[in-house]
Amino acid sequence: MDPTAEVGAHPGGDAVEPWLTLAQGYERARAREDSLDRLVEWPAQREILGDVTGLSVLDVGCGNGAKLAELVAAGATACVGLDISGNFPPAPPTGMELVRGDLSELERVPELAGRTFDRIMFLQSIGYASDPVRTLRSARATLADDGFLLVTRTHPIRYAVERSEQNGTTLGEEYFSTGRFTYRHRGWNDQVALTKRAYTVSDLLNIFSTAGLWIEHASEPQLPEDARRRYPHKQAWMDRHLGILIFKLRPLPGR
Ligand SMILES: C[S@@+](CC[C@H](N)C(=O)[O-])C[C@H]1O[C@@H](n2cnc3c(N)ncnc32)[C@H](O)[C@@H]1O
């Protein structure tokens, strides 16, 4: 795939281009002992996935595939990770395949044709879809019987807090603004600007129902007590920015 062909090809979604340079900085930050992904997000995501023995998993926007590799080590089989960055290890573990592709066109990824999966994950990646409803519908079509989707997104309040501080506006003004905004993640690579589409919690819920999915479970995971004590700077961050939203989604019958 020609990565430059993707630039500007996502009018509705968050800008994808930065990930072509951001991928390594992101994975370095994620691997840190005090990263919120390690302390809060992945443990909460893992708990919802439960026992994965013998289950096939599709990880959409998988980064370097490290989470999928953990699931394979825990017994998952026939797993596929898909990411646009192509920042993959040279030899992924047996039982998983890493594919460079675009989540905005899942139905056109040859490696997914005719396949079904017991678990499909969009961990901090659905925002990059040019049309999230289309992407979720495609994912739903590849879900095995009794399968579910695990979707996470940054709490929209987080961005509203940052923008209200930057712009001297109120939380409500920023939360309900519909424009795009740009931010730099200092922990990943402060040279790379990320452009995002603003969204509210209602926007997310409406995307799920329009895609024919219902929420079996939702959560807003927080730091466990021992991590609060060990990493007070992370608790201070969570107190201001809330963290992420996690959704376990199943297909609505008959849709
Ligand atoms: C915030 S990272 C999350 C990575 C991983 N899912 C995790 O939980 O650590 C977002 C990921 O989405 C990928 N991504 C962005 N746009 C994409 C697209 N159009 N198609 C596939 N992957 C994309 C990025 O390359 C990046 O790996």
Automatic annotation (TrEMBL):
Pfam families xrefs: Methyltransf_23 (PF13489)
Name under which the protein is recorded: Uncharacterized protein
InterPro entries attached to this UniProt entry: SAM-dependent_MTases_sf
